[in-house]
Write a structure and sequence with these properties.
The chain is of the alpha+beta class. It has two domains: 97 residues, Alpha-Beta Plaits (2-Layer Sandwich); 94 residues, Alpha-Beta Plaits (2-Layer Sandwich), CATH 3.30.70.1560. Helices cover 17% and strands 26% of the residues. It has four helices and twelve strands; from the N terminus they run βββαβαββββαβββαβ. The longest helix is centred in the C-terminal third of the chain and has 11 residues.
Length: 208
């Protein structure tokens, strides 16, 4: 019986969160040469950061199912400086497509985060300053962070996911992946309620 594989990947900007694309745009297949793993959740083409991939279907379902409320943490660079009212609206939830989002943890970063340069820089305008926010969500609506910040008047210019539950992006560089440790998989299993049968093979990291 093949061993279960579960990996963390730092998806670069402009890469599709899938292994194939009829338009031949960059995909996960350009970076991950691990047979049998599939993305547990999505990360949009124009977003960056942490994705989890696994060959365990039950684990993938538990990671993506909002019922289990596995928190996801994002850094969002937004236009201008949100005031207290805008931050409170984000925290309490905003209405998107007729449904109010769940309460979120939102904070304004005092300093810009240390992130690798994006291959396509954000649109820069001298008259429009930007602010970095850290947002923790407990659901996964389509393009949720971008839609939330736009709804309160502060469009997102750059978006980087830095954590999914207990798994942190850490020092993984764009395009790099690593195997999760047995302890990390065990923690995810406990938090989501999936059987702890999931075990990674020998941990390793790769840039391809």
């Amino acid at each position: 019986m093949p061993s279960v594989r579960t990996i963390a990947f730092n998806k670069p900007y402009g890469v599709l969160p899938s292994f194939t694309d009829p338009e031949e745009r960059p995909t996960l297949a350009d970076y991950i040469k691990v047979a049998g793993v599939y993305a547990a959740g999505r990360l949009d083409l124009d977003s960056e950061g942490l994705m989890l991939l696994t060959s365990d279907g039950a684990l993938a379902h538990q990671i993506t199912d909002p019922q289990h409320k596995l928190p996801k943490v994002y850094l969002a660079q937004v236009e201008r400086m949100p005031d207290h009212e805008a931050i409170e609206r984000l925290r309490k939830g905003v209405v998107l497509s007729g449904r109010r989002t769940r309460p979120a943890e939102v904070s304004v970063l005092a300093e810009d985060p240390q992130l690798p340069n994006r291959p396509v820089p954000i649109r820069f305008r001298k008259t429009v300053p930007t602010t970095w926010l850290e947002l923790t969500l407990h659901e996964g609506m389509n393009r949720q962070v971008r839609r939330m910040t736009a709804a309160v008047g502060h469009p997102t210019l750059r978006l980087v996911r830095i954590a999914i539950g207990p798994i942190q992006l850490g020092d993984l560089q764009p395009g790099q992946w690593r195997e999760l440790t047995a302890d990390e998989v065990e923690i995810i299993c406990r938090k989501t309620g999936v059987s702890s049968r999931s075990r990674p093979s020998v941990p390793r990291a790769s840039t391809s």
